[in-house]
Amino acid sequence: MAALSQKTKWFYLSLASAVLAIIAIIYGLATKGFPGDFFSEWIVVTLLLGIAVQYANIYVHFHWVPILSAVCYGTSFGLVILYGAPTVADKYWGITYSGGNFNAVLTYLVLTGIAMLLAVALLFFNQDK
Amino acid sequence: MSKKRLWRGIAGALAVLMSVVLCTTSLAWGHAAEIDNVLSASSTAREPSSGEASESVGPVYYESYYASYDEAKLAARANNVQVEEEGAVLLKNDNNALPLDSSVKSVTMLGRASYDTIYRNSSAGVRTGEDLVTLKGAFESAGIAINETVYNAYAQSKTKRVASVNFEEFDIGEESIDFYTDSIVSSFADYNDAAIIVLSRTCGEGIDCSASDVDGINQLSLHQDEKDLLNLANQHFTKIVVLINSGNAMDLGWLDEYNVDACLWIGEPGNYGCEGVANVITGKATPSGKLSDAYATDSLSSAAVQNSGNLKWTNADAMDLGMISRTIIDTSGKYVVQAEGIYVGYKYYETRYEDCVLGQGDAEGDYGIYASQGSNWNYADEMLYPFGYGLSYTTFDQTLDSVVFNQETRTYSVTVTVKNTGATYSGKSVVQLYVQSPYTQYDKDNLVEKSAIQLVGFNKTKSLAPGESQTLAIEVDEYLLASYDANGYESYILDAGDWYFSIGDDSHDALNNVLAAKKAVGLYDQSGNAVAGDAAKTYLFTYDNLDATTYKTTYSGASIENRLEDADINFWIKDAVVYLTRQDWSTFPKTILIAAIQEMTDILKIDNQELQINEAYIKPADSPSIDNVVLGKKNGLTFVDMKSADWDDSALWERFLSQLTIDELISIAKGGGAQSVNLPQPKAADGGDGAGDVQFVAEIVAASTFNPELARARADIIAELDMWSGVSVHWAPGGNLHRTPFSGRNFEYFSEDSIMSYLYEVIMCEAMQAKGLVAAPKHFMGNDQETNRRGIAIFTTEQTWREGALRGFEGAFTKGGALGTMTSYSRFGLTFSAESKAVNNEILHGEWGFKGYTITDFGSGSTADMYTSGTVQSGGSDRSKALGTYIYDNDDGYLLQHLKDNAKYWVYAFVRSNLTNGLSNDIQVVQEGTSSWKTAIIAADIILGVLALASIALYALLVYKKKTEVA
Questions:
Q1: Using one digit for the tens of pLDDT, what is the confidence trace for B341-359?
Q2: How many CB pairs under 8 A join A and B?
Q3: Chain A touched by B791 (CB under 8 Å)
Q4: Does residue B741 have a cis peptide bond before it, meaning omega lies within 30 degrees of 0?
Q5: Is the peptide bond preceding residue B898 cis, with omega within 30 degrees of 0?
Q6: Measured between CA atoms, how close is B207 to chain A, in angstroms?
Q7: Rounded to an integer, what distance in angstroms lies between the CA atom of residue B83 and that of residue B279?
Q8: Does any CB of chain A come closer than 8 Å to the CB of residue B24?
Q9: Does A103 touch chain B (CB under 8 A)?
Q10: Buried-exposed string B151-170: b where 16+ CB fall within 10 A, e elsewhere
Q11: Could you report the per-residue pLDDT of B426-441, keeping only the tens digit for each?
């Protein structure tokens, strides 16, 4: 709870990554931009897990727990690459081989990528003052 | 920063990196086949049997004409320049505007495509290289100065052409009139000898042209920005030349309205073709190209267009087909009914014209009117440039000398003498030979449709000087004259009655000659001018009786019967569709919107689940055990030992094939090698418009040359470049049809005409195979539109399948000797192409005697049904483990036996290829195991994993120590 009251860098980084993750989930489900017009439920699950772990850490406050949320965000970012790569390849080759919405995929990459980096960055900071 | 935080950060960062890398590893593994192909990775290597290095390179079965790859590339360049010279089609040339005379020194190139020229369309294959010859570069090399102000302005512009990649809206990407500022316009004055306006259209793989683009109009029509540009050009230039840079037939009815002096269709010129364009423009070469598609006034007017594009079952949403389909894009709910039947392209326009002239079938009715003035359909209004049309700088006279039928070979030999009747220019002339078969009462009763005119052969003269003549011969197989009778004899038939061979400058001219011979009146040309026709350019011959027996048996001795009845929508839903018939032109197609019945939905559902090897496949009750399939023997036969093996020597083949192991059969099903028989893994190249690192002039331009020898030379140089690149199979040429002007890949297919495609396939495949390159025409078959291509269900009549999509490929296998082919993604009716026993087993291997191998298009899944339907190799993601597991777990000897049988096709094809070059029994093929790129990724994964674990351990240790200290 100290993090909530103390507003540390850790807190802001954690909050920002969680907000980006939530935006990614909402945007992903709204746009369904991967080939086949879908957004992977595994991305939703890993992002939600990352958020849940971050939130839980406010209470449990184990020093190693933020690693888990970073890994969750990293996995979701990796999954975005996995599912979105065919769409990026299409864009590169100028064809519609696999389909998908390039701009949406790009947005997923940016949102989950930044969320992941923030989650990694906060590992180097103290949760409390 | 404390050590604990530092190591937490490091451990976390590495763990995150590890998770990302694992996902990307999965991505790479899922696309292993594509990566292997791009990297030309091979799982096999060759070593001397003795284990010692040897100077010997082994026997060379296929030799190159050239001393090096670079030398071959130079020859490829020359070939491409010539193809463009002979393939570019001069559509308009008022007052001899072309060639540009020597007074033309400075020109302005207008149209954004003058800078952003489409050299290649989007598809598989190589890309334009650093030595790309641009239009500007080509003109400058020809001594013409180009307005740099305009050119540079285009270069700096942010305007872009959009071909709906990733579902953006189509945009032709032309500049608006506001772009042409005063400074740009003032630059015209110094470069006003002529305006060369370049207009382009693009679509490509997975992308058809749009019937309604970002401007809300047909993409192939003239857009407002282009109209403004033409008006601007009219204000500042006295000579306007338009170059059409498009593989899709544009609507060009505006050329007169905008005072265009000359118009040259150039297609997509590839890396070097612009040099050919400049040669034509400057008169160094005389144009001799002819259109391989009819150019209608309005592209939407063709009978085929009415049912094309994105059509889905009206109950598709309720069908609950699921989201994950056989291929990536879900198209199980999509279909097309080719209600136009055989009347694709010119066959529709010309047949309707004849019926108008002869007053048959209510042809003048108002059905399918798009450009006709008034309430009657009128050919001259609807048609702009007929199939086969093309002008020259000189004039020719053609005389039909003789027609002789050889009873033994059942071929017609037609000779034509061509004379250059011009006074100034040398040039080549195309002889187009057409046939008209009688449309009889039997045909009407049995719904056998007949085009009023059909191309059956073509040839081209050498360059003839003014006054010079040449006599050309054209051989025509009688078989190509026959029509498929699905409702009567279930065979190709030759009708009783009067037949006509006819030569002409184009399909319409040839038809008018036939009509003249039939003493018809009221003939007119595509401009509406009355013409008489020339009966002397026709040859009348007669069949006394209907012949339904000669072609009941095929090349291979197989008997023909209907095999695609379930690929007709009326098979599933009685009287769902009335196909277009010339008996009654009121049958002109309407867009067919239809609901799938439950029986169809059930099949589509089966095909639409997440794909398993045994999807929908049921192991036969009498399947043998895998132990009963003889494999793994040591019979001492190697791959090269089979070089002269006769296909029918079953005992020898059994001895050879029984040496293979299950793993090797599975390896072959993925395109790999087999160490036990010294079979190396072959390398492949994709796409007919390129080889090595050379982007060729598009196939449609090559088709427009109407030059068999030039096509042969093109195929030969493709084989040469591949040989120097270590490539043994090339997935080319494209044999699909330009069913509509909107089809996305018309540029890499020959024509709308299936017999033209047939004839080119014969020539090119023959040449490729002769040089040891396995010719593998694609996409067999029915890939005639890109929209929904992955899984689209195509329905039409058996006659249409056989005389259309199938015939476009047929020659490749029956006469060209092609030993490979790539399937389409389409469904024939409801059956996925690679799983169609009717097409792959019964027609391709059965009727046509194909002895080569079949690969699915990239990304298609691999299924047991596929392997038991004659498809040898999966071009999709690596499912070999699943295949092996399935066979072992289910003791499926039936499937295993099919893999063994399929291996024969594979070996038969590649033992007749350059893969055997340098291969002897002194050379041992060894399995390399994992591809080097895979090894690198695995190594990276392991290193990263170790580092992550180590850092986590270190971090855990620090936490533990800290806790201990605190305690």
A1: 999 999 999 999 999 999 9
A2: 127
A3: no
A4: no
A5: no
A6: 6
A7: 12
A8: yes
A9: yes
A10: bebbeeeeeebbbbbbeeeb
A11: 999 999 999 999 999 9
